[in-house]
Every structure is written in structure tokens, then in C-alpha cells.
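Protocol step 6 of 9: fold each sequence in the batch and record its C-alpha cells directly after the sequence line. For illustration, a two-sequence batch is reproduced in full.

Sequence one:
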Amino acid sequence: MRNAGIWIIIDTNWRILLLKRSNYTKAFPHHWNVPWWKWEIWETPENTVIREIKEETWLDFIPIKIYFTCIVENSWEMIHSHRFLWNWSWKIKIQETESDWYAWYNYEETRNLKIAFNHNEILERLYTDWLIK
């Protein structure tokens, strides 16, 4: 099992940042997802997510807390996942080999999207916890 994390980015209008996966991705091409990453055994989840977010979106992040952890099972592997809440700054510039678009969505708008992995569960929990509207 490998370790992975989800980063949850919420703007001042209570919308969440979602990335649209490119057709180059192995799993769920053209589906929307909460940005996520994997880390090496010698890295902490916090250090890894700071590095990965900078690489994938060019955002600067400051960790606030781990939102929750879970085990995600894909058809080819199981992933131990940590989901974080963060403060962020800067302008988004996506890594085009993994994503081909990004957008900010409120909860109702996400219900009409093709969502990758188990990220619908994340959206439901964020809505239930009043973190997105």
C-alpha cells in the first residue's frame, strides 16, 4: 500500500478547487478530482504536499490540519490517504500532463460532474461539515 494525500482548497465564496484530469492519465481521464499526490517513505505528509502543490499548481500552501485519513482502494492498488485543509496564496498554474483544466465549484455544481476516485465522499463530507456551500 502506498501513501497519498488529498489537498482541499476552498475559496472565500465557499467553493472548492477541482482539477479536470487529462486524457494522459491512467485512471479516470476527463473526470474531475480533488488534487492529490503521493509521498516517499522518508517524507512527512506536510512536506510532501507543500512540494507537490507547488509543482502541480504553483500555489504556496501553509498546512492548517489533517481533515481526515482513509484507505482508498483502486482496481490496481490500495492507498493510505491523508486529507488536509490549508491556507493558500498565489495564482494557479496547472501541470498539464496531469490536468487540462481547473475550476471553482460550489456543492450543487459538483453534483453534475463526473468525479474521479472516491472524491464524491470528500465533497459530501465537506458539505456536511459546512466547509463548502
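Sequence two, same batch, same settings:
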Amino acid sequence: MVLALLLSASSVLATALPEQMRASLIKSAEQSCFEGQSKQESNKARRPEVLRRFCNCFAEKMSYTMTMEGAIASIGKPPTSGEQQLMDAVLANCWLVHVK
């Protein structure tokens, strides 16, 4: 029933992620990012704490762009072009701030 309400087309306002879900998303995304970035040859010489800050930045910023409706709708689907553009912009910003 709650899921039906969240997905209701009549819902005007987007629902923010609950804090516990947001924290879990951040932790998971940060770890996944760190593992992926650490494996890239171009990052082998970078200190792990630099990559962790970069990945935390990305995970934190992306968590604020997500809503319950968006999270549910995106399960098992690749990002839309708009979502990909947003991710690319966040990645570029976090890279400039924490790595360059």
C-alpha cells in the first residue's frame, strides 16, 4: 500500500530519502566508487585517502539528488541521459575539488 502511494501519479511532491536509507546509499556508493577508482591504472599512484574523499563527495552529492520515487523507478534500469549528465557533472566537480 505504501509503495502504491509513493508511485501514485497524483503525488505532487517528491519524497526525500529517509536518513537511514540515504546513509546506506552513501556507504554503498562510496565503497563501490573507491573499489572501481582504485583498480584504474591512472589512479595507482594516488593516495587512498584522496580517492576516498573523491568517492565520498560523489556519493554525498548524488544522495541529495535522489527521491524515493526516483530510486524505486530506477531499480534495475540504466540511468537516463539526464541522470547520466547529472552524474558526470557531480563526478567532474568532485574530481576538481578532491583530486586535481
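Proceed to step 7 once all outputs are recorded. Observation for sequence two: The mean pLDDT is 88.
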